[in-house]
Write a structure and sequence with these properties.
Layout (H helix, E strand, L loop, with lengths): L2 H21 L6 H15 L9 H12 L17
Helix pairs in contact: 1-2
Length: about 80
């Protein structure tokens, strides 16, 4: 892999976790935008996976315990980091 591609891959890795946290559980276009971004990134780097982030599970469990029944399954992004 070229040095430039490695730099871009590292930059994406450093930023996407914040995008996942922001979009996680939101009832907007944010979750689908993050999913699409990761799918496209994995077309170039098929073995790349987002870092594990326990905070996503904790957030989902907290919101579900509060009966946030309006969220769609695809709004939750914790499945991306398992």
């Amino acid at each position: 892999m070229s040095k430039d591609l490695e730099i871009l891959k590292e930059a994406y890795t450093e930023v996407i976790w914040m995008a996942i946290r922001y979009a996680h559980g939101r009832q907007t276009f944010a979750p689908s935008t993050v999913r699409s971004s990761i799918e496209n990134f994995q077309k170039v780097f098929p073995d790349w996976k987002p870092r594990y982030d326990r905070a996503l599970k904790d957030d989902r469990e907290l919101r579900e315990s509060m009966k946030d029944h309006f969220s769609l399954g695809g709004d939750w992004l914790d499945d991306l980091v398992e």
